[in-house]
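Handout, page 2. Input:
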Amino acid sequence: MKILKMLSVPVLLSAVLVLASFQKAGKETERIQNSTKVLTTFANSDESIPQDLLKESEGIVVIPKMINASFGVGGKRGKGLATVKLADGSWSNPVFITLTGGSFGFQIGVQSVDLVLVFKHKGVLTKVKNGDFTIGGDISAAAGPVGRSSTASTDHTLEAEVYSYSRSRGLFAGISINGSNLSIDKSANATFYGAGTTSQQIFETGKSTSTPVLALKTALKGL
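Output:
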């Protein structure tokens, strides 16, 4: 009986650790599912991302329910994912990322927005590895043109590196992402893909048996 009692402690501890691991992975799965919902909403909207821009793009970042707050001095914070086009035109597995930023303004309030960033070149994302970069500082950014067949915008030549699209309560909401910092969420990637997995490895991989990841890729194709 004493031996059984002694064995029960490590066994119980192992069970707790396994349960905690599943709970952590669940948060990443939920992030993928929420990102899929955002892409599906954009695809079904009359004011969607132009097809011409999507054909030229090589990377997409999705941040569901990003907090955009302003109390004299504004701030942004959101967790999402990034994916890039592979050589065959398919999309890579998602890399988990975070976006933070600040701005000066006069509005007071807190707003939750769904944010989609369209990247012209995937190298901007794949070269980040486990570091970060500043939007509007390291790379140029602009508000994206709206309309499935539209290419008209303030940047009608489509020369920016990143185009931003945000929606709040079903409507497009214009917010500035210049000065925001995008970084790799190493903890989330380790939880979902396994310890030691780098963002570079994830960006280079398109194969997956994960149901949420497959659903995400289907939503990407539907844009």
